[in-house]
Amino acid sequence: MAISISGLAASPHSTDAPVKPAEPMSMRRVADALGTGPASLYAHVDDKEDLLAILVDRAVGEAELPAPDSGPWQEQVKAFVRLVRTTLTNHRDLARASMGVIPTGPNVLRVTEWLLGILRGAGLPDQVCAYACDLLPLYGTAIAFEEGLFMTTLGGVDIETYVAEVRERLESLSSEQYPNVTGMVDSLMRSEGDERFEFGLAVLVAGLAAQAKTR
Questions:
Q1: Rounded to an integer, what distance in angstroms lies between the CA atom of residue 103 and that of residue 88?
Q2: Which of 22, 21, 17, 20 minimizes the C-alpha distance to 31?
Q3: How far apart are CA 84 and CA 59, in angstroms?
Q4: Rounded distance, CA 27 to CA 35, Å?
Q5: pLDDT for residue 89
Q6: Residue 17: in which H helix or E strand, if any?
Q7: Where are the alpha helices (DSSP H) in 35-175?
Q8: For labelling, which of 2, 12, 101, 157 has a CA lying 20 to 30 Å from the CA of 128?
Q9: What is the DSSP letter of 27?
Q10: Contact 200, 138 (CB under 8 A)
Q11: pLDDT tens, position by position, 121-179
């Protein structure tokens, strides 16, 4: 059976295979999905990390970046992080697979160049831009990863049932021992769409803006 890089990246197991989310990706499982043996894969990729980098780059290639002059830099950065989250959420388990991987494929480099241009254009120091280029996609990836974990750990349990159980646990705590926790159950358990995600995103962008003001 002939195998190509594009075939590897599009294999059923790459990001959308109907397998248990808790099962880690392996070269053998990818080979099984392609109907071949692991040895055949190594003719095209060096190892699993190499394959993961290809998968990440392929997913990043789907991203349509805003035009550099499409609005204030803060809003462009926010749009970028939202795009990271959406892209990884659309590919089951890819957020988990991309953790700890530093891809340098052409699509990733294109996005990196775009983001650095936005940040440097905002007057941020180069080192701040470099850290932000790591931190911003990491935040979007972490949120997508967490959302994937919920699907994995909950299994067939209804999420509303799970949340109700957590709330019940917090409400049962001693108010003398945990006055702050018990006094803030409503706030701690609040879940209003993307409100939490957007709050974190706003905090990150405000922090970057502060860096520009103090330098």
A1: 14
A2: 17
A3: 10
A4: 12
A5: 85
A6: none
A7: 38-41, 48-60, 73-89, 94-98, 106-121, 126-154, 159-171
A8: 101
A9: H
A10: no
A11: 999 999 999 999 999 999 999 999 888 777 666 665 677 888 899 999 999 999 999 99
